[in-house]
Design brief:
Order of helices and strands: HHHHHEEEEHHHHHHHHHH
Largest sheet: 4 strands, mixed
Number of domains: 1
Radius of gyration: 20 Å
Distance between the termini: 26 Å
Number of helices: 15
Structural class: mainly alpha
Strand content: 5-15%
Oligomer: single chain
Number of strands: 4
Helix content: 55-70%
Strand order of the largest sheet: 1-2-4-3
Shape: globular
């Protein structure tokens, strides 16, 4: 099987497994069963998340071995990354557990916003503590060059208290100078046009709206906090699945909008950079329109080279970012979506394109 088909198949199996388990758990009212047998307390919620991460761990390991280069295969990294996710999950769970006792919906809504902003700020902290980094600047942009980045990692835009920063995997710095700087200009264009900021704001607000809607439903039903937390996680998995189905086209439009500008600057470098990018990603020269529309936030090389439309409504990283930020709503589906399976760096640093 070709690499791109293997990667797609693993992603479908991964997401399909989570969606299937989620649907069954909601149908059987798994949360009520747990609380009836073990009580309404945080330990029950913590055990639920430990169970969810444990049953997805074999898929993480399998994907890591199957689709990564030998240099990037690391079972220890998979295990450590799941431990980090678990610690973050129990932190957000604890916050939500105490929020559920409040009647002030505005405060609950603002708390959801703040948790997502906190997750964004944690990206820089995790990057600095997990990688060998070197600070750099290019024109007006602050950058962090990641010396030990895996080959599948792309340039990325993260938020910090001092403004946005571009994460640059070291393998990009080893390209020809004109290719490297051309790709940097692409990310400067994304930041300059505020596309990344619009994606952040859209994602945070929509996730918070869903959070407050689920919160209001279960609060009015007067259920224990632990039932709310487990059902919030399950429902958020399904909402994230809907994001997966509906938002790739919005991401594709955003990417082809940027492509139009970059291609007009230098069509030769534009094509070369697409090939460099795909060599470390899906290796897709072309794919069927149906498969591309449903499963891929990034269009194939052929689609991007042949797109002649100058402007469409789109946000280039919205489908990845919103699913990542849904983690604060206790969704874990981001581990397997859009090629993230077996790639722990992409879990907390989802590609900006």
């Amino acid at each position: 099987m070709k690499f791109n088909n293997t990667k797609l198949s693993i992603g479908i199996i991964y997401v399909g497994s989570i969606v299937s388990l989620t649907t069954i758990a909601l149908y059987l009212d798994f949360a009520s069963v747990l609380v009836a047998n073990y009580g309404n307390n945080l330990k029950v919620a913590f055990c639920y998340f430990f169970f969810m991460l444990t049953i997805t761990l074999p898929l993480d390991v399998f994907a890591n071995k199957k689709i990564n280069t030998s240099r990037d295969i690391s079972i220890n990294k998979i295990i450590v990354s799941n431990i980090v996710l678990y610690l973050l999950l129990i932190s957000f769970t604890t916050i939500i557990y105490f929020l559920f006792s409040l009647e002030n919906l505005l405060f609950v809504f603002l708390s959801s916003l703040m948790m997502q902003l906190l997750l964004l700020l944690l990206q820089e902290i995790i990057t600095l503590s997990s990688f060998n980094t070197k600070k750099y600047s290019y024109k007006s942009s602050s950058m962090l060059i990641i010396e030990n980045a895996p080959f599948y990692m792309t340039m990325n835009i993260i938020r910090s208290l001092k403004g946005p920063k571009i994460l640059v995997p070291s393998h990009w710095t080893k390209q020809k100078k004109e290719n490297y700087e051309f790709h940097l200009e692409r990310f400067q264009l994304i930041m300059g046009s505020k596309i990344d900021l619009k994606s952040v704001l859209f994602s945070i607000v929509l996730n918070s709206i869903f959070f407050i809607a689920i919160y209001s439903y279960f609060y009015s039903a007067n259920v224990p906090a632990t039932i709310f937390i487990i059902n919030l996680s399950l429902i958020s998995n399904l909402i994230s699945f809907i994001y997966i189905l509906l938002l790739p086209k919005l991401s594709q439009n955003g990417i082809t909008n940027i492509d139009y500008t970059m291609r007009s600057k230098d069509s030769s470098l534009f094509k070369e950079n697409l090939e460099i990018f795909e060599s470390n990603q899906d290796r897709n020269q072309s794919r069927s329109k149906i498969v591309e529309t449903i499963f891929y936030p990034i269009p194939s090389i052929d689609t991007r080279l042949n797109c002649k439309v100058k402007k469409k409504f789109g946000l280039s990283n919205i489908s990845r970012l919103i699913i990542f930020l849904a983690f604060t709503n206790l969704s874990i589906i981001f581990k397997g979506v859009h090629g993230n399976a077996g790639k722990p760096e992409n879990w907390l640093l989802p590609p900006s394109e």
